[in-house]
Amino acid sequence: MGNAYSKVSDFVKEYKEIIEKNANLTGISLAWGMYSSLPLSTLMKIGNEAIDYYAEAHLYKWNAVIHTIGMPFTACGLIQLASGILNLRRETAKQFSLAIYLLYGGHYALLFPTKPVITYYALYSIPLYLAFKRYDKLCKSTLEREGNSNQMNTSLTTTITSSFSNWFNLPLIYNALTICIPSLICQEVIGHYFAGDIPSRPEGVLNAIVYAMYFSVSHLF
After folding, report:
1. In whole angstroms, how far apart are CA 7 and each of 3, 11, 13, 14?
2. Could you tell me the residue range of the domain that residue 171 belongs to?
């Protein structure tokens, strides 16, 4: 219990430090999240109409609960996947993940009741914390990246593997895929198939990207 409290305490401390160092990022992310409903409304359904559309594929409680269990893992994997593809350094990856977390929260806060929004912030702080821990292990800091760059300039190790490593963070991408792919498969098979709901709809991908996390907490209320 003490070890768990220590980990949570460390995350809260690091989270506060990132917010304090990036106050503008925090405000901008929340503001963009609140503003996002306007451009999104030209592309798709938003708000309660979008949730109703998403719920059509999650009519059974079993499927909705599996969704609630699986989505934090999916979110954890996808945010790491994006950071790995962009090959962000450790500090930037954390800022990017925090910005996405707040962006979604800002969008939800403007459109939905307070309790589900607070639950979103609480539940999805867990994958955010886990992503931070992976960045500490699998992302280079600014100084480490500069050191590697200098070393590469004085050597001839220009292999295909090293080239891909310069473009992408392959260990982080691999770690992300091992999290999000099994999670998505479990949600589709254990959730949709065994519950008897319709499969996830390809035309609903954009709707799922925006509202899957909110649905995972909203059906609890």
Report:
1. 6, 6, 10, 11
2. 23-142+159-218
